[in-house]
């Protein structure tokens, strides 16, 4: 069982443009077409059973259409993660709509959506509603791709949210914070209601720091992820499959068992 907990796809008629613009915005390479068909093809080539599809609405007006496309996406191997924007006016209705369609995860990308996740007056009422509906929240955390004073989502911010909302289940992307892993170890590792996924960490983090974070946090709360199409599925999987400081059982848990229990056996799971 292998599950990729962090992927992105777009409608076929928009994928090429969105992919090109996103790659230019963050000055990153791409490794696929960002379509449902291409992701399934790469999943088949690499033995991946399921993938979590994360949507991000860069502006409030994109929320409804983005989620509608996701709701109507028919693919049993995709686990759907919807989108919200803090400035969207009908956010309660949209949370309810996602829940009614058994979408139990939402993704925030604070750098793209231009907000800070622990801005209490703006975001805390949203987290209260997500708790009420039992919806998990995943945050992009870390540099884009390198840390800078302008980064809007840092490990200490996610710690604040986790402490203020102990009933909120949080997934911190990029092993808790892309290229901010010393802060992850100090601020996030070990928090009860925080999970992490591993995308984009493989070629940047030192093995020793990766070992320390996973040991402190608990390997059972770590998911394998790639961030397709902004990282190679094959390369990410190859490194994750050979992590020397993990036992074979721990590697298997991170590659798929943990995500299967979380996304598919629990109420969070959906098709």
How would you characterize this protein structure?
It is a single chain. This protein has helices at 12-26, 36-46, 63-71, 91-100, 110-113, 120-133, 155-164, 181-188, 207-217, 233-240, 248-264, and strands at 3-7, 50-54, 78-83, 105-108, 136-139, 170-172, 194-197, 222-223. It has a single domain (3-264), classed as TIM Barrel, CATH 3.20.20.140. The protein is α/β, with parallel strands linked by helices and 271 residues long. 43% of the residues lie in helices and 12% in strands. The two termini are 17 Å apart. The radius of gyration is 17 Å and the shape is globular. Strands 1-2-3-4-5-6-7-8 form an eight-stranded parallel sheet, sandwiched between helices. The mean pLDDT is 95. Helix 4 runs parallel beside helix 6, helix 7 (155-164) runs parallel beside helix 8 (181-188) and helix 8 (181-188) packs parallel to helix 9.
Helices and strands in order:
Blueprint lengths: L2 E5 L4 H15 L9 H11 L3 E5 L8 H9 L6 E6 L7 H10 L4 E4 L1 H4 L6 H14 L2 E4 L15 H10 L5 E3 L8 H8 L5 E4 L9 H11 L4 E2 L9 H8 L7 H17 L7
Helix pairs in contact: 4-6, 7-8, 8-9
CATH top level? Answer: Alpha Beta
- How many structural domains can be distinguished in the coordinates? 1
The helix fraction, in percent, is 40-55%
In DSSP terms (H or I, runs of 4 or more residues), the helix count works out at 11
What is the H/E order?
A: EHHEHEHEHHEHEHEHEHH
Q: What is the CATH superfamily?
A: Metal-dependent hydrolases
Task: Specify the overall morphology.
Answer: globular
CATH topology: TIM Barrel
Question: Total number of β-strand segments?
Answer: 8
Mean pLDDT: 95
Q: Give the low-confidence spans.
A: none
Sketch the major β-sheet. Answer: 8 strands, parallel
